[in-house]
Amino acid sequence: MSDTIDSRLAALGITLPAAAAPAANYVPFVISGNLLYLSGQLPIEGGKVAVLGLVGSEVALADAQRAAELCAINILAQAKSALGGDLSRITRVIKLNGFVASAPGFVEQHLVINGASNLIANVLGEAGKHARAAVGMASLPLNAAVEIDAILEIAL
């Protein structure tokens, strides 16, 4: 399956970055039994937060969806690091929790997080179909427009 995942990433023009180091007092992932819990990932690209501000006033919907895609790419990078480089160990994405820095009155958080859901499903196929939450927040760390965490089922 890893070849399939690698070929899907290549077909989408995606090269996974190095997994981001924690920015505070937490670990980037925890493995408990056959579950991999990934800490929240920001839309980091080129070492910096790529999409800043409140969605619905400072950030357009399309840009927020791109931010969610970047979060998903960083989720995959973090999973690859946690799994010793072997993404084929992912048997199922259980849940994504999506947080959107939202201007008052913005109610399309679900459309923003579709950016991540679509990318994960395109890369992982059936194993990428997941439950999720998409919620609005007053602000996020480092003024990021989006943050997403994940729970994955893995082969031991």
Automatic annotation (TrEMBL):
Domain of life: Bacteria
Residues annotated as domain Endoribonuclease L-PSP/chorismate mutase-like: 6-146
InterPro entries for this protein: Endoribo_LPSP/chorism_mut-like, RutC-like_sf
Any one Pfam family match given in the protein's UniProt record, by short name: YjgF_endoribonc
CDD domains (alphabetical): YjgF_YER057c_UK114_like_1
Protein name listed in UniProt: Endoribonuclease L-PSP/chorismate mutase-like domain-containing protein
Organism: Rhizobium wuzhouense
Lineage: Bacteria, Pseudomonadati, Pseudomonadota, Alphaproteobacteria, Hyphomicrobiales
